[in-house]
Write a structure and sequence with these properties.
650 residues, alpha/beta, Rossmann fold, 23 helices
């Protein structure tokens, strides 16, 4: 019966892939036994309550094997029907790669290799932190494992290796990775590109290593998972030797990795595995196994936990109230609480942001984050000391020089639930984080990405550290709120928006250099994306449109032009994302089409042509020079901006 239940996974996979004429059958056929053993003997989930906070997390990092997960989740009782499986890779809830929020039982959007396992490490960090805050003797209300199924490709990606290194350093003992080790990848044998010793490598990074020599041996798999669960001081890699495309005539070759096996191939498979059922036909006794060993077992665990939580609420009412607030995760930022943090008239927005983070951390105990070895520069530092294996309550995560992993780990922390999470880095290195930022936007999760050193005003570090094209690149990502504040007031507004966001990640982009606090900047303006920060006095002769530090520059140029008889308006646009959501009437009020508009930004001009044909930007790389000299050489002085616009107005 166990073999029949395993083969049910395999045939649902190959039948769906054949019907779609698209997909990856190799991993489904090879990994089905280990996935079956994990789900039926170890994984605690409640299919009637998919967001149960204390569930075990299962991340299919090898997201191309999505039919493995869909088949398991269908058999386990999630809302994935047989019709959904037949509709694989078509519009519906069984897309080609798992998508968080789209399909029940999917913990993260995976597929870009290395991201899923890195997300899982964020989830494991969240579990340890919340456990340290809330668990009491005899009341382990936060107590679950994070499981990953990954392939050779995952373990070759740099993002995964960064995250794996950090996981070992942090001793995340309740993180267990099942490695589908079949020695094959898309282009052929893994040995064409990879020859490292997994055992030596992972042990050197602080992991426990276990090898399962036969991926079809359920007893061996079960013993390995039990041993992994018993080691609470180290994460565990279980290398499971499997045969890609097991049971097919193409087994053990790359030809079965990413292409349907076809009708002839599935006929051979049915004969080899003694499967006598029609496509998408599963016998009732198989459903009965999953109902007993996954569905009902998980519901019993969920019920027992709810009883424990109810007792906890009576014995520890204050802690329970705090736990509930973490669970709801609905922070409200009252601007009045931050008056002392935005009182400076001349301050870099990175410094203002650092003060705001400190205040937010005192008011919101679920705020956690840190920077990639840059907290002294980004000022993006968490509270209560450094998070470590000795101090799980610390809210400052030292990511080290691991920007790739940092973005993915932040997403994992957010996906776990209960926490608000931020990261910090130099803006130019958003390039390293873009895949994770993009995935946050796809998943509709409110990750917060803080970047400082936002322009050529970085100065002496030169073009390698001076962002030019990064703004337009991030602004092009759908469902990503990119906010570039002009001063302290707008920085506070950006943080309020980020903290209160429910479905959108936020990028906050900050200056190294000091900025003058403007009179009319406000949350009420920023929350509309763009607004008038220095109005015309009488007749509108033109508009200077800017973001960030260039807003102050625009106001200075406005004053020069006023003395030359030109009555201009200055508009701050900290977020084009928010501005595009305003009514057409409001957009026309702020940027009337009849007005001549000059957009000013120390970055690629491409962001601004939607609003005007006149753009004063930078379409070449920066220069190593003191910031004032760099700004002068690139024409970002009030005199040069005023002179340029005066010529265009004439």
């Amino acid at each position: 019966m166990e073999q029949k239940a395993i083969n049910a996974i395999r045939f649902l996979g190959v039948d769906a892939i054949n019907k779609a004429n698209s997909g990856h059958p190799g991993i489904v056929l090879g990994s089905a036994p280990m996935a079956f053993q994990l789900f039926t003997e170890h994984l605690n989930i409640d299919v009637k309550n998919p967001k149960w906070m204390n569930r075990d997390r299962f991340v299919l990092s090898a997201g191309h094997g999505s039919m493995l997960l869909y088949a398991l989740n269908h058999l386990s009782g999630y809302k994935i029907s047989m019709q959904d499986l037949e509709n694989f890779r078509q519009p519906g809830n069984t897309p080609g790669h798992p998508e968080y929020g789209h399909t029940e039982g999917v913990e993260t959007t995976s597929g870009p290799l290395g991201q899923g396992i890195s997300n899982a490490i964020g989830m494991a960090i969240a579990e340890t932190h919340l456990a340290a805050r809330f668990n009491k003797e005899n009341f382990p209300i936060v107590n679950h494992f994070t499981y990953v199924l990954c392939g050779d490709g995952d373990l070759q990606e740099g993002v995964a290796l960064e995250a794996i290194s950090l996981a070992g350093h942090l001793a995340l003992g309740k993180l267990i990775v099942l490695f589908d080790s079949n020695d094959i990848q898309l282009d052929g044998k893994v040995s064409l590109a990879y020859s490292e010793n997994h055992k030596a490598k992972f042990e050197a990074m602080g992991w426990q290593y276990i090898k399962v020599t036969d991926g079809n041996d359920l007893n061996q798999i079960n013993r390995a998972i039990k041993k992994a669960k018993a080691e609470l001081n180290k994460p565990t890699l279980i290398e499971v030797k499997t045969v890609i495309g097991f049971g097919t005539s193409l087994a053990g070759t790359n030809k079965v990795h990413g292409a349907p096996i076809g009708e002839a191939g599935v006929k051979v498979l049915r004969e080899n595995l003694n499967w006598t059922y029609k496509p998408f036909e599963i016998p009732e006794e198989v459903y009965a196994i999953y109902r007993k060993k996954v569905t009902l077992r998980g519901q019993r665990a969920s019920k027992k936990w709810r009883q424990l939580l109810a007792e906890y609420s009576q014995v520890y009412p204050q802690e329970f109230a705090l736990y509930e607030s973490f669970d709801k995760n609905e922070p409200i930022v009252n601007l009045g609480d931050f008056k002392d943090d935005v009182k400076e008239d001349d301050e870099a927005t990175r410094n203002t942001s650092g003060k705001i983070i400190n205040r937010l951390s005192k008011l919101n105990l679920n705020l956690i984050g840190g920077s990639a070895d840059l907290t002294s520069s980004t000022k993006a530092k968490g509270a209560d000391g450094d998070y470590s294996k000795e101090h799980r309550l610390g809210r400052n995560i030292n990511f080290g020089v691991r920007e790739h992993a940092m973005g993915a780990i932040v997403n994992g922390l957010v996906l776990h639930g209960g926490l608000r999470v931020f990261s910090g880095a130099f803006f130019v290195f958003s390039d390293y984080m873009k895949p994770a930022i993009r995935l946050a936007a796809i998943m509709n999760i409110p990750s917060i990405f803080v970047f400082s050193h936002d322009s050529i005003a970085v100065g002496e570090d030169g073009p390698t550290h001076q962002p030019v094209e990064q703004l337009v690149g991030l602004r092009a990502i759908p469902n990503l709120n990119v906010i570039r504040p002009a001063d302290a007031n707008e920085t506070l507004a950006a943080w309020k928006i980020a903290m209160e966001s429910k479905n959108t990640p936020t990028v906050i982009i900050l200056t190294r250099q000091n900025l003058v606090k403007q009179n009319l900047t406000s949350y009420d303006g920023v929350v509309k994306g763009a607004y008038i920060v220095s109005p015309e006095q009488n007749k509108l002769d033109g508009i200077i449109l800017a973001s960030g530090s260039e807003v102050g520059l625009a106001i200075e140029a406005q004053s020069i032009l006023k003395n030359q008889g030109k009555d201009l308006r200055v508009v701050s646009m900290p977020s084009s994302f928010i501005f595009e959501k305003q009514t057409l009437k409001y957009q026309k009020e702020i940027l009337p089409k009849s007005a001549k508009i000059l957009a000013v930004e120390m970055a690629s001009s491409l962001s601004w042509y939607k609003y005007t044909s006149l753009v004063y930007g930078i379409d070449k790389f920066g220069i190593s020079a003191p910031s004032e000299k760099a700004l002068e050489l690139y024409g970002f002085t009030k005199e040069k901006v005023a002179d340029y616009f005066l010529k265009k107005l004439s």
